[in-house]
Structures are given as structure tokens and as C-alpha cells.
Amino acid sequence: MYIAPRVVDAKPFPDYKVKVKFKNGEExxxxxxxxxxxxxxxxxxxELSYFNGVKAMFGTISWYDEVDxxxxxxxxxxxxx
Length: 81
Fold this sequence. Notes:
- The protein has 81 residues and is of the alpha+beta class.
- It is 19% helix and 36% strand.
């Protein structure tokens, strides 16, 4: 079973993206935009002031302990910079 490196830092980035840094030192941009209409939980992220509260928590990106993404999804879908 593969376990991706976990997120250790997250910062909001323009156009509903998040700049992330992983425990292994890799960095990249995770695009949240495709998920904004994917369900009621993610609708909260449409409000920019809420979205900008993103933090690295529990090895992934999270907002106020209410909304988060699977850490493996974040690692796989992040475009490295």
C-alpha cells in the first residue's frame, strides 16, 4: 500500500488554488476549482474569505477542521513547481 508524503505547509493561491509543500520537500499547486461544485461540503470554499483560511492540518489541506481533501489526492493532483 502506497502512502503519499503528507502536506506540511499550505497557502492560498490565486484562482482557487493552494500552494502546498510536502514532507519530502516537494512543492506545487493544488487546484481546488474543479471541486467547488462537487457537493455541499465544498460549496463553502466558493467564498473567498473562507477559502483563504486554508491550513496544513493532519497531513493534508484543511479549512477550520470542517473541509479537507484526502492527502493522497492532494499529492497525486498537485502540479509540481
